[in-house]
Amino acid sequence: MQLQLKNIHKTFEAGTVNENHVLKGINLNLEAGEVVTLIGGNGAGKSTLLNCISGALQPDIGSVEIAGIDVTNWSNSKRAGLVSYVFQDPKMGTASRLTIKENMAIANRRGHKRSLRRGVQKDDLQMMRDQLSRLGLGLEDRLTMEVAYLSGGQRQALTLLMATLLRPELLLLDEHTAALDPKTSEMVLALTEKIIGEEKLTALMITHNMADAIRYGNRLIMLHQGQIILDVSGEEKKNLTVVELIEMFKQQSGSDVTSDAMLLA
Ligand SMILES: Nc1ncnc2c1ncn2[C@@H]1O[C@H](COP(=O)(O)OP(=O)(O)OP(=O)(O)O)[C@@H](O)[C@H]1O
C-alpha cells in the first residue's frame, strides 16, 4: 500500500467558539500507481487532508502510512524524502531569486542532508538539461536565468519537475493549475500526466474542475464536510459526466452545489 490513512480527524481551534471539526474519520488506501483526483466544495477539508499527509499539519486522531512506513509522528521535513507536493501558487515551489540551475540543484537534494557545498557538477548539468527538456519549454537552454523571469505556467512546470526529480513515494497536487489561464492549465496538466505516467507515480490531486477530475487519474474521490462521500474508479469513473457528478454530489451530500466553485468546471 502506497498510502494508508486510518481514521484521520482534525479540528481547528478546539475548545473555542470557532471550533471547526474539519476531518471526520478519513479512511483511505492508495495502491502504488494510483492517481486520484480529489474534489469537494469550499471548506470540505481537501487541503487539510493533504496537509495531514505531507506533515504540514498533525492529525488529532488517526495514522498516516506512506509506502508502508508509519509517518504519523514524522515532521514535515522528515517526510520530504517520501512526499512531494505542488501548490496553487507558482511562486511557492521555486526560489525566485535563484537560477533554474540552482533551483534544480536544490530539488536534487530533497529529503537528503547532503552538503550544500558540493556544488553543481558537470554530470549534474547534463542531467538537468535532460530533465528540463522533458517539459518541452526550452528551459534546458536557460539554466542561468532567474526563475523570477519565468511565466506562471513555466514556473509551475518547473516546480512539478523539481517535485519529481527524486522519485517521491507520493505526489500531492493542491490545485496546482488553478492560478493559470485555461490553456496554460491544460499544458501543465498534460505535463503532470506525462511525468506521473513516465515515473509510475502514486498521486493525489485536488481540483475544482470537475471535467479535469474526470479526465485525469484512475480514481475520483469526493469530500464533503470532512468525509469521503464518493469513491469511483476504473470504467465507472471514465464514463462519468460532469452533470452526473453534480447529481451524485447532490444525492450523497443532501445539498446543492449552486454558487459553489465546484461548478466552475
Ligand atoms: N490553519 C487553520 N486554522 C483554522 N482553520 C483552518 C485552518 N486551515 C483550514 N481551516 C478551516 O478548515 C476548513 C477546511 O479548509 P480546507 O482548506 O481544508 O478546505 P478545502 O476543501 O481545501 O477548501 P477550498 O476548496 O476552499 O480550498 C475551512 O473552514 C478552513 O477555514
TrEMBL record:
Q: Which Gene3D superfamilies match?
A: P-loop containing nucleotide triphosphate hydrolases
Q: How does it sit in the membrane?
A: Peripheral membrane protein
Tell me the compartments it is located in: Cell membrane
Q: Which Pfam families match?
A: ABC_tran
Q: What are the protein's GO molecular function terms?
A: ATP binding
Coiled-coil spans are none
Tell me the keywords, alphabetical order: ATP-binding, Cell membrane, Membrane, Nucleotide-binding, Transport
Domain annotation ABC transporter: ranges? 3-250
Sorted alphabetically, which InterPro entries does this protein's record hold?
AAA+_ATPase (IPR003593), ABC_transporter-like_ATP-bd (IPR003439), ABC_transporter-like_CS (IPR017871), ABC_transporter_ATP-bind (IPR050166), P-loop_NTPase (IPR027417)
> What's the protein called, per UniProt?
ATP-binding cassette domain-containing protein
